[in-house]
Amino acid sequence: MASSSSALYRISNLQNHISPLDSNNKLRSLVKVSPEVSEAISNGRAVVALESTIISHGMPYPQNLQTAKEVESIVRENGAVPATIAILNGVPCIGLNEEELERLASLGKSVQKTAGRDIAYVVATRGNGATTVSATLFFASMVGIQVFVTGGIGGVHRHANQSMDISSDLTALGRTPIAVISAGVKSILDIPKTLEYLETQEVYVAAYKSDEFPAFFTEKSGCKAPSRVDSPEECARVIDANKKLNRQAGILLAVPIPKQHSAAGNLIESATQRALTEAREKNVTGNAETPFLLARVNELTGGTSLAANIALVKNNALIGSQIAVALSQLM
């Protein structure tokens, strides 16, 4: 990979195969890898993938830009290279420069929330897309990034027995051998059913330094974690073994929110229940539901939930970077 200019790759199939760009070929899809990320991958350095939906749809501008920069700084301070992923003008970008990050943040919700199913459309129409967990997994896997940090993953929605609303994050994890570091599953979802679905998808799930699976805004969900890991090095060994065994399923490492930010859990849970009721009354469904619920919970808690969200993302970035560094030392 060249480090002096953005590296371009051809998306040749869905099996994580990458071919160098041939200037004589007409390609339908291009991936632009930033010089910093390209060089890090080439040299076997630690790289951490970051999604972009949290920037465009998670909070208002300029708070979203400030948070994105702070998260990237945390990754760098802990020895890894951040690779924020988004689609800009139809070009999937792995690693954003300051200008691209600013543009994404300022566009906000006008950017299409892009899950795995939406990638081809956004690229074909030369649109702007903020990647969700499933789309970020796709692009990160394509260039060989093994660690991905996010806030919380999607899951089985409450009342899914009626709506059949199950996030594509779960199926993407089941077929993408990447470790996702999150604060568990968003508390607006049905956590027990989500854990059952992850088991069906053969996704290894572990709580970090805890026996209980975290519930995003709170340290505990009432659900016992399927497994437990207690250090970045232990996490790295699991990820390394998963790769060497050529398993195609991913890994979910659930990191509890820091204690000082989990005290408001009861307040947030009460607000969540009210927001869920309002979403049903207003018939808010599909990929519009999660942004609606998170925004409404933030309103009902006077900003407490957003502050907790930011805190847990930063904590995940810290732990995720340490895991990525430990993994790079095993390579």
TrEMBL record:
Cofactor(s) named in the record: Mn(2+)
SUPFAM superfamilies xref list: Indigoidine synthase A-like
E.C. numbers: 4.2.1.70
Listed GO MF terms: hydrolase activity, acting on glycosyl bonds; metal ion binding; pseudouridylate synthase activity
Keyword Lyase appears in the UniProt entry: yes
Keywords from the named record: Glycosidase, Hydrolase, Lyase, Manganese, Metal-binding
InterPro entries: Indigdn_synthA-like, PsuG
GO CC entries: cytoplasm
Protein origin, superkingdom: Eukaryota
Matches recorded under PANTHER family: CARBOHYDRATE KINASE PFKB DOMAIN-CONTAINING PROTEIN, ZGC:136858
Record note on quaternary structure: Homotrimer.
Protein name from the UniProt record: Pseudouridine-5'-phosphate glycosidase
Organism field: Raphanus sativus (Radish)
Gene: LOC108857565
